[in-house]
Specification:
The protein is elongated. Helix 4 links the parallel strand 4 and strand 5. The chain folds into 2 domains: about 130 residues, Response regulator (Rossmann fold, 3-Layer(aba) Sandwich), CATH 3.40.50.2300; about 60 residues, Orthogonal Bundle (Arc Repressor Mutant, subunit A). The chain is an alpha/beta fold and about 220 residues long. It is about 55% helix and about 10% strand. A 5-stranded parallel β-sheet has the order 2-1-3-4-5, with helices on both faces. Helix 8 crosses helix 10.
């Protein structure tokens, strides 16, 4: 039996989501309606998957995610929301969330997302990835120079640095003391920003655009 903790302060959403998940009899869902109840369950038990509403009464899904990851860095956490995730994306990734699911998702979409999360796969809404691509494309048009319009965060540079040295996602996660899903999210964002489809392409393009630290350029030249 796969145990899931679902935290949402809306009774209809909470009960409806539980019913959809438990339609597949391999899942057993434990409910929490408040932040205090969620914290009590997190501290007293461990679950195969955590599903947190982004906004609940006295605590939010970000803080709950941090508590879970502090207890188990490899924990599976999904954020469920009816709002646009873009303003919260970076902080949720840093907290350790493994993916997102809309409150309007169908039963099939919900169960598919859960299965992906349990396989440690990164889960992003396609609409968000498209938004990242649109933002990049607009920057290229306005600037006319890809080198000056695309930048990687410090963490993205470090992840790509380690990838360029041939390390696996698991090895990178261990080196940086972050979850493997966090590494996958950084790589997904890097691929999108650079408009590439593989690690090799990402490293080559980042070198060309001088987005990697000089140590990589020297050691791989």
């Amino acid at each position: 039996m796969i145990n899931i903790l679902l935290v949402d302060d809306h009774p209809s959403v909470r009960e409806g989501t539980k019913a959809m998940i438990e339609a597949d009899n391999q899942y057993q869902v434990t409910l929490a309606a408040t932040g205090e109840e969620a914290i009590e369950r997190i501290e007293s038990s461990s679950y195969d998957l955590y599903i947190f509403d982004l906004f609940i009464d006295t605590i939010n899904g970000i803080d709950l995610t941090k508590r879970v990851i502090a207890k188990d860095v490899e924990a599976n956490v999904l954020i469920m929301t009816g709002f646009d995730i873009e303003p919260h994306f970076n902080i949720l990734m840093e907290a350790g969330a493994g993916g997102f699911i809309s409150k309007t998702a169908s039963k099939d979409q919900l169960l598919t997302t859960i299965k992906c999360a349990l396989r440690n796969e990164a889960i992003l809404p396609k609409s968000f990835l498209r938004q990242l691509r649109r933002n990049e494309y607009k920057g290229l048009i306005n600037d006319g120079d890809a080198k000056s319009s695309i930048s990687l965060s410090e963490k993205e540079q470090v992840v790509l640095y380690e990838a360029a040295l041939g390390k696996s996602n698991k090895e990178i996660a261990h080196k940086l003391s972050i979850s493997q899903r966090m590494v996958e999210y950084h790589m997904t964002k890097i691929f999108t920003l650079l408009n590439v489809g593989s690690r090799g392409e990402a490293v080559a393009k980042a070198r060309e655009m001088k987005l990697l630290p000089s140590e990589i350029l020297i050691s791989r030249s």
